[in-house]
Amino acid sequence: MTSGRTAVYGIVGWPVAHSLSPAMQRAAFTFHGLDAVYVPLPVAAERLEVGLRGAHALHLRGLNVTIPHKEGAAAACVRLDPVAAAVGAVNTLRRVDEGWEGFNTDATALCELLAEVGVGAGARVLLVGAGGAARAIGFGLLEAGARVLLTNRTRDKGLLLARQLGCDFV
């Protein structure tokens, strides 16, 4: 049951109906006894800025960001963490009075998982994709000392990201 004190969180994307995040987050809130809900928030790319302003005005506490909004959401933030600033993409937004703070946990999470299985400096990695998550992951891999080869279904976008990261493209 919700009340006037229920904290509202969500995931912003287009499309977003398929996301498993709402079920996982609601289960975590329930497990920890938190008075909070987590909802999918479908926002078309051309409406992202107004959608984020509206979510802030409605006092949503935080948002996860998915395809295709990771780069656009970063541009709408009042502050970015160092990784988000370096890659120009966010996957997590935290509400502060003056707007959204943006964070990128994609690179850190992947590099930690890869390190657990022995992938690190000197590893050869094929990165598939050139969106916001790929940008962050490529950045993290290169920071960890991996040799990255990038590919993408659209050549121009893939080449652009490969140049920005300083890695090879195939």
Short summary:
This protein is an alpha/beta fold and 170 residues long.
What does this structure look like?
The protein is of the alpha/beta class. The protein has helices at 21-31, 48-57, 70-75, 82-87, 106-116, 132-143, 155-165; strands spanning 7-13, 36-42, 62-65, 79-80, 92-96, 99-103, 124-128, 147-151, 168-169. Helix 5 crosses helix 6. 34% of the residues are buried. The mean pLDDT is 94.
Write the layout of secondary structure elements.
Layout: E1 7-13, H1 21-31, E2 36-42, H2 48-57, E3 62-65, H3 70-75, E4 79-80, H4 82-87, E5 92-96, E6 99-103, H5 106-116, E7 124-128, H6 132-143, E8 147-151, H7 155-165, E9 168-169
Parallel strand pairs: 1-2, 1-3, 4-6, 7-8, 8-9
Antiparallel strand pairs: 3-5, 5-6
Helix pairs in contact: 5-6
Strand line-up in the sheet with most strands: 2-1-3-5-6-4
Termini, distance in Å? Answer: 52 Å
Percent helix range: 25-40%
Mean pLDDT: 94
Which keywords apply here?
single chain; 170 residues; alpha/beta; 25% strand
